[in-house]
């Protein structure tokens, strides 16, 4: 089930919650400065958060490049996984991309991250290549996925 989560645009005041989510969920978490640069770049980025009451329980960061959308980041707060949060965020983000006449979506995902891959495959993403040692800290390879919207 999905679609029950409230989604809104990410704001400056969200950044500390987003840093906590990053640290909890990513081996190479983004810093506050990186997140602020992303959130405030409204020209080419679209950052959204999912809320449980007023609590931030997930977020999605998109980057628009010509007729492509890049999924820069997506994460769900530990303890909230498997409840459709990432699904709702992606449904919202990709629907907005389509409204903007974006035709293709792409992202990188760690080869070991089967959970995230299953999510992306449900949205029609397919692997087209591998970036060797894409993740500096772990040395892990990334799969490059693309989807037609
Ligand atoms: C990958 C990640 C974003 C998925 O987020 P999520 O909110 O758990 O995703 P969803 O709940 O939308 O979907 C995940 C699964 O839950 C299932 N699900 C969805 N709603 C559900 C519900 N209400 N009850 C039970 N299960 C549900 C989905 O069927 C899906 O199944 P799958 O494991 O077969 O894909 C999350 O695990 C995460 O933050 N991981 C760490 C960060 C990360 O790896 N990000 C991606 C980097 S590329």
Short description:
With 149 residues, the chain is of the alpha+beta class. It has four helices and seven strands; from the N terminus they run βααβββαβαββ.
Please state the oligomeric state of the protein chains shown: single chain
Mind telling me the CATH superfamily name? Gcn5-related N-acetyltransferase (GNAT)
Name the average pLDDT: 96
Helicity, as a percent range: 25-40%
What hetero molecules are bound to the protein chains? coenzyme A
Biggest sheet record: 7 strands, mixed
Number of domains: 1
**Which CATH-level-2 architecture?**
3-Layer(aba) Sandwich
Order of helices and strands: EHHEEEHEHEE
Residue runs with pLDDT of under 50 for 5 or more positions: none
Secondary structure tally: strands: 7
Number of helices: 4
How would the global form be characterised? globular
Helix and strand content put the structural class at alpha+beta
Tell me the radius of gyration: 15 Å
Please state roughly what percent of the residues sit in beta strands, choosing from under 5%, 5-15%, 15-25%, 25-35%, 35-45% or over 45%. Answer: 25-35%
Name the strands of the widest sheet in spatial order: 1-2-3-4-5-7-6
End-to-end separation in angstroms reads 22 Å
Structural description of this entry:
With 149 residues, this protein is an alpha+beta fold. It has a single domain (6-148), classed as 3-Layer(aba) Sandwich (Aminopeptidase), CATH 3.40.630.30. The chain is built from four helices and seven strands; from the N terminus they run βααβββαβαββ. The chain has a seven-stranded mixed β-sheet, sandwiched between helices. It is globular. The model has no long low-confidence stretch (mean pLDDT 96). Residues 1-2, 25-26, 58, 74-76, 81-87, 109, 113, 115-116, 118-119 line the site of coenzyme A (COA).
């Amino acid at each position: 089930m999905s679609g029950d989560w409230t989604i809104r645009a990410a704001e400056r005041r969200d950044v500390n919650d987003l840093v906590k989510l990053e640290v909890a969920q990513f081996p190479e978490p983004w810093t506050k400065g990186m997140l602020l640069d992303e959130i405030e770049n409204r020209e080419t980025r679209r950052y959204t958060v999912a809320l449980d009451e007023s609590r931030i329980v997930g977020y999605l960061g998109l980057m628009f490049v010509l007729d492509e959308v890049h999924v820069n980041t997506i994460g769900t707060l530990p303890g909230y996984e498997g409840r459709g949060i990432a699904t709702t965020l992606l449904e919202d983000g990709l629907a907005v991309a389509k409204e903007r006449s974006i035709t293709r979506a792409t992202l990188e995902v760690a080869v070991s991250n089967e959970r995230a891959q299953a999510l992306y495959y449900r949205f029609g993403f397919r692997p087209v290549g591998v970036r060797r040692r894409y993740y500096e800290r772990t040395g892990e390879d990334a799969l490059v996925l693309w989807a037609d919207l």
